[in-house]
Amino acid sequence: MLQQTVEAMGTIEMKLASIAGVCAAGLALATAGAAGAGTVALTGFAGGVQATSGTDQLYGWYFNTSSAVDVTALGVGDGSGVPLTVSHDVGIYELSNQALLVSSTVPAGGGTLTDGFLYQSVTPVDLSAGSYVIVMTMPQENADTQSIDNTSETTSAPVTYVNSAFDSGSSLAFPNSGEEGAFAQGMFGPNFTFNSAVPEPVTWAMMLFGAGMVGSGLRLARRQNAAAGVA
Cβ atoms within 10 A of the Cβ of 120, count? Predict the structure, then answer.
């Protein structure tokens, strides 16, 4: 009988340890998803022409997200592959209330070049599933040309392109809705990188509850082993 108890307790400990390993791996993957380099939102476009601005203007594009993402960097088009000659402000606004959610400045001569865009990292900002617009400042007749009048574009899921955004102005602002669709397809323009959002609070709670259950089970198994006289 003692031998059977010892064997049963050993099996319980092995199973609980395995569950604990799975929980730890899940937590590690979730954390890694938030800390990675990021996925590029706008991955390609074609059919456009390179242009600069005749006056102080805003270039951008409207987009939707079908699930939550964490924005990790904001970028400015640099098809020539040379450093930017002037700085450009970039921001993402929520469509429903026109609130600015994240912004940064890609400086002249700075940023990290990736596939034709110069990026500036930001503290990750969560975008829930919804509708947004990303815009950048284009100072009058600057030498940093952007691609307008494109005929096609591609994006990384869960981001989908909706329409171009355009307005006048020297400061970052929510674009005039009356100019939506100007110089479409897209004003590229600004871009961003993102990671899939970390698990929702309910998911975290379930994972932590499971980890707690594992710990309780291990403690119970050890107490039963001790009662049976097993070290």
Answer: 19
Residue-wise pLDDT tens digits, 82-134: 889 999 999 999 999 999 999 999 999 988 999 999 999 999 999 999 999 99
CA 34 to chain centre: 8
Q: Which CATH class for the 39-196 domain?
A: mainly beta
| Strand boundaries in 95-129, DSSP class E | 100-106, 112-114, 117-127
Distance CA 152, CA 185 (A): 6
Three-class secondary structure of residue 72 per DSSP? strand
Query: What share of the chain has pLDDT > 70, as a percent?
Result: 69
Q: Token digits for 118?
A: 């110069």
Extents of the domains making up the chain: 39-196
d(CA 101, CA 26): 29
Q: Is 141 exposed, middle or buried (0-12, 13-18, 19+ CB in 10 A)?
A: exposed
